[in-house]
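User: We ran a pulldown and think these components assemble together. Before we commit to crystallization trials, I'd like a predicted model of the whole complex to look at. Sequences follow.
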Amino acid sequence: MNVKISMQANGAKRHATVPPMKRLLDVLRDDLGLTGTKEGCGEGECGACSVLMDGEVVNSCLVAACQADGAEITTVEGLAPDDGPLSAIQEAFWEYGGAQCGICTPGMLIASADLLSKDPRPTEATVRETLSGNLCRCTGYVKIIESVLAASRMQKRPAKKAAKKGARR
Amino acid sequence: MSRPKSRKLGGVVGTNVRRKEALDKLTGKAAYVADLEVPGALWGLTVRSTQAHAKITSIRRDPSFDWSGVTVITAADLPGMGCGNVVQLIVDDQPFLAEDVVTHPEEAVALIAAATREHAEEAARHLKIDYEPLPPLFDAESEDAVSFKDYLIEKGDVAKGFASADVIIDGTYRFGAQEQAYIENNGVIAWHDGSSVTVRGSMQCPYYVHKALKRLFDLGSTQVRVAQTVTGGGFGGKEEFPSLIAGHASLLAKATGKPVKILYDRAEDMVATTKRHPGRVKHRTGLTRDGKIVAMDIDVLLDGGAYATLSAVVLSRAVIHSAGPYRCDHIRIKGKVVRTNTPPNGAFRGFGVPQSCFALERHLDVVASKLRMDPVAFRRKNLLRDGETTATGQVVADAGESHKALDQALKQSDYAGKKKAFAAFNSTSRYTRRGIGVASFLHGTGFTGGGELYLMSEAGVALTPEGTVVVLAASTEIGQGTRTVFSQIVADTLGLPYALVDVADPDTANVPDSGPTVASRTVAVVGRIVADAAKNMGDALAAHAGFDRATPWSEARFRAAAKKWLADGKDSRFIAKFANPSKQVWDEKAYRGDAYGAYAWACLVAEVEVDLLTFEVTTLALTSAQEIGKAIHPRLAEGQIEGGTTQAMGWALMEDVVMKNGRMANGSLTNYVIPTSMETPPIRVITLERPYAHGPFGAKGIGELPMDGGAPAILNAIADAIGLSMERIPATPERLAAEWLASGRKPLIDERRDAGFAPPPRAAKSKARRA
Amino acid sequence: MRGDLSQLKVSRPASLDEALALLASDKPPMPLAGGTDVFVGVNDGHPRAPWFLDLSALSKTLRFIRLDKAGLSLGAMTTYTDLRRSKAIATFAPVLAAVARDVGALAIQNRGTLGGSLGNASPASDPAPVLLALDAHVVLASEKGERSVPLHEFFTGYRKTAARPGELITSIVCPRTAGPWMHWYRKVGTRRAQAISKVVIAGALSVGKKRRVEGARIAFGSVSATTVRARHVEAVLLGETLSPALIAKAQETLSRDFTPIDDIRSTAEYRMHVARNLLGAMLLASGR
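Assistant: Here's a predicted model for the assembly, 1228 residues in total across the polymer chains.
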């Protein structure tokens, strides 16, 4: 028996009619076409499915569709407008090599953006601990952490202001 | 990090240009195979054997289930479909679908396609497969294990060598399998229209899949098209395995006439796909009293699993590297890879070298300790120098780099200072002990021996109508930045802006066969071919336009020359072939000669802290010095070193493939643990650059070397910290505790019994969540 | 194989009364809060129930941290992040913030709840030993009313609790206890984050003048079919003076309180060895 759910996804009101226990991850990817969020394990271990739900990082593979009804969701697609400049964290990942194969990157960006919005000048140890729920097999985390620290320096102020420079090539 | 010298033309080689392939990954737009929407696609599913070794006595459909809308394929259907049931690789022993016998757990027995995943799974539950079990063999060390392949390498006369030795020291070292654990699971989509087949998917080697599909369907090269989608990690796990999953999806596509998606979930990917070969290496080493190695007798045994796949090549690399970067006149290396009733093992970064390097470098620390020699001094005494020869008799002109790597790693890690500091720490610390360990190692670039000649790879460049340049190569980008690095190479070869160059998607319809994306060959071998082609293009365009080739291009002049070239009806493509620039001479029968065009040299220093309450090992720091010829993109190069070193750390300490009845029992990311950001220490990377004459801009291979030395360096550090010699990896806390107890040491708290309640001389730091 | 989760039913009560009414059904739904354990079963094709009770709307009633004269009262839907952020916890029971920090990683901490962990009754629950050492009791509500069960009577077997049909955990209460208590906790997991525990030790010790043990509550996780209080060890310690000999005796007594097993993550030998070591370290620390 399907249910109709509504949510704010990346600032837009979206609806879906889905089985209530459908995973939020699948609602985002299949029903809302937001394929930026990835499945890596289906067990809440890898964090590739991380999204912001009502201001907190969650593993969307562990959230039921019915629990996301009425929620405010941000996915990687929501970090920067389609034709606008990249956010500071995305710029930093690009410049400092925070992504290699990129499959963990959406989750990493979400977790990093969340951290910087709550703690604009985190220590290296805080960054390391905050990202411990996002597994990366390529980088050894070194340049991911460097990227987050760089982004925190790039941000002049806390909260969601995107970096002005966004020259894309 | 050493500062790379930039090319005299200025250019982009040696600089950290922004990656061409990164933007889509950062915005969520990158299309991995699971992201592709294919209207009308069916869901494909693989039904797998529950037995390790058994006759298949029947495969029956439960008549109570409605099978309309479901397609089922078994081996028996293949001849009628005009298909040959062999996965083409090296030996024709692996079928796409088991015929009469299953030889390993999780072997594919049937394929099912239906409109949805749920329907396919429900159908699978109603497919009854009956087995008559046969005796399985799981122990690779058993007398009954049958060998896929043997090697023998001989240098000098080991009997003579041992006769001249003052001391002979034996050791046996064991290593477990390792799961690649790429974060993107295997997946492909296939289309078959009756006369041609197309596959898109996560893979490292489109042309391996291409060959396998040609053979499966008996089709010509232009009737098979394979294209790589954005791939979320490979590490070797998507080298040969994709041929199997691609064949499965294509068979279903042929049978149904519809596109078919097969996307593995994590559990299936972990239990059913290839892993690093586990095994054991025995060492017998003869030395003079003052620590000079005079004889080495090495016995390598690898567990290949049920089918040959790439085992012979893994073994080859393992044996060739098993004597490491050391001088020794008398060497004998025997190697064998055997069949067991477990899922076939395959490629994983390092490809046999991490295994043999672990054994050698751990053994040499044991040897040094028995000789009461400092392990660093021991290595200095025995490391090869420029112009000396390896176990296969190859003259290595730049072996002196191994000494430089050792020097740099020791210096940057402050080895001497740490030894003192750790000794002081250990004398006062209540529950933890620190140690430092070293490993010296090497990795041959490209395919072994005549392999590159056999591959005869092709790659090139093409002009677009706008007068820009596109690289045509089958090399895939799997995180290492291939698109960026190839663009840098071509941009600087032609003297053009980086923005004018890009790389075509690896699609067999458009790109030539550049060989597989493996063996650390992408930059050094394929990059060189691409550079050759670019040079040819530059020369041809200049000549045709009447420009002096010695004068650097400007963007305007290049575009003009390009347009003239194309307007005059010339071929837009410039394809070059592998030219064997290093002129390797290799004797495949005797297994002697130039095994590789070049070796790259490295040294890793590991610092650890062992908690004697729990035997948890914390890696405090890793310092990696790697000689890489030339860092085309320093940040990408560092990324390879940091990532590979972390994977090695995982294998050394925590990644345990637990096998029960031939099957991986811990096939989930919960129970097969890879390092998180909390495990990974600061990693200092030093790149040494001694240009390799035959690589583009001096570059050598880089991708695998970082994997090779991590395990022994860490275990050497553990031995330094607590005096426990672990001869087996992973060195989990359980194994360390068991060794500690077996060694007769008192349980820790007893040691402090007499100290009563006095705090230790230096107050132990109390942390919020630790003792 | 994931299975067909479109067949799973969900009810979302708007109030506790509504929830309790649904739980009074013949085949009651399984409570679902953060989903960090329930959904793992859903994802691998083995959902633990065909019908779930989504508690999301009950946050107002069931998600709280209150400190008063009697002690600390934690709503069942309190998350690990709530514990980490709470000033009351930082003052009254910082050990709860410590264990919360060790559960999974941030995304799990944001969703996982104490009620979920206790209701699940996994022997590997990280907070359970800590709550046992805090002498917690569990408040259960049903249509028939409310009752309180000491946590040390709550786990009755492997993944089994003393909750009766129709009951829902609504809160966990940790009483104030007289005298200075030292709280000590350590989790040994498969790795430093995102880890299932292999051994968890939690202790509350009251050591008076001349190192006399006036109170001891020592609990272990992941060494037995349920989280356990080490009763024999406690009995050996109570009323005695801490000394190296007493500590050794306590360590030897541990094998009377549980017999760990080999499993996919660890071995019996390791668990016992580490449990003894950590007990010793804890007792040494308490005597200083």
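Chain A is about 30% helix and 15% strand. That may be worth checking against your pulldown data before setting up trials.

User: Thanks, that helps.
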